[in-house]
Amino acid sequence: MKDNERVAVEGKAVRLVPYTKRHVLKYHGWMQSDQLLEQTASERLTLEQEYEMQQSWRTDPDKCTFVLLATHLQPGAVSEQTDRASRHDGSGESSTVDTGGSGSGPESATVTRTHGQDETPKGEAHAAVEHEQCTMVGDVNLFLNDPHDPAAAEIDVMVAEASVRGCGIGREAVLLMLHYGATRLKLTRFVAKIGLENAPSLGLFTKLGFIKVSECKDFNEATLELKVDAEPPVLQPLWSELDPTYLDYTFPNE
Q1: Which end of the chain is more exposed for a tag (fewer CB within 10 A), N or C?
Q2: Residue 77 neighbours by CB distance under 10 Å
Q3: What is the pTM of this model?
Q4: SS3 category, 55
Q5: In 10 A of CB 45, how many CB atoms?
């Protein structure tokens, strides 16, 4: 989606950044996991197809994707764990993927805080983005696919790195994405389709106020819904807790 290609959203422990070509190799490694493919209802793609998909999603007006950075991690914490594991297991599971680095380190980016009371020094923000591949742990998506309701979107989240599951990363990512969707895209209704056996995701969305509206035995999934058109928004207390900050996000030559 063009709307988010130069925008990052920062919370307390998570930063959402646009999905760019430098993220594809690590993402592709995650998606060799049969478990993640099943949970995300995805098809296994070749690396070339993954790069094509990234470019397609970047320009598709109906798809909005952010990569999750776990900003509380020490730079390299995730990549060191996965690098060690990958030397012992070539299965490609989400806990054993390579970081996708070229050996020279990720290119630097320019991040400018556009609002928020606490100003982050440029040097710190610059360093955080340089290490983003090391703290990349998943993604969160919006699909504006309801032809009858242009203010509705389907939302999903994936925390691919097993080492950071259960730490609140998914919850914060969903809250930040809901804030972005409601305030920047003017969405008022969010839908989540979750496998009936995916108890963690069902629990996460239910605790955030999503209500189950249907259940499909054929696809073994439940559909949950959240409306945020009330005044004040139902999620306002949780958003205030995170104090989302919007950043101008650019990489050289991209």
Answers
A1: C
A2: 17
A3: 0.79
A4: helix
A5: 15
- In order along its 254 residues, the chain shows pLDDT tens digits of 888 999 999 999 999 999 998 899 999 999 999 989 988 889 999 999 999 999 999 999 999 999 999 987 765 555 444 443 333 333 333 322 222 333 333 333 444 444 443 444 555 545 555 677 789 999 999 999 999 999 999 999 999 999 999 999 999 999 999 999 999 999 999 999 999 999 999 999 999 999 999 999 999 999 999 999 877 788 999 999 999 999 998 765 45
Q: Judge whether 192 and 154 are in contact, CB under 8 Å.
A: yes
3 state SS of 79: helix
For residue 95, give both structure tokens.
Answer: 């806990």
Residue 73 token pair: 């991690």
**Cα atoms in the 13 Å half-sphere on the side-chain side of 128:** 24
Supply the angle between the helices 199-207 and 169-183 in degrees, to the nearest 10: 50
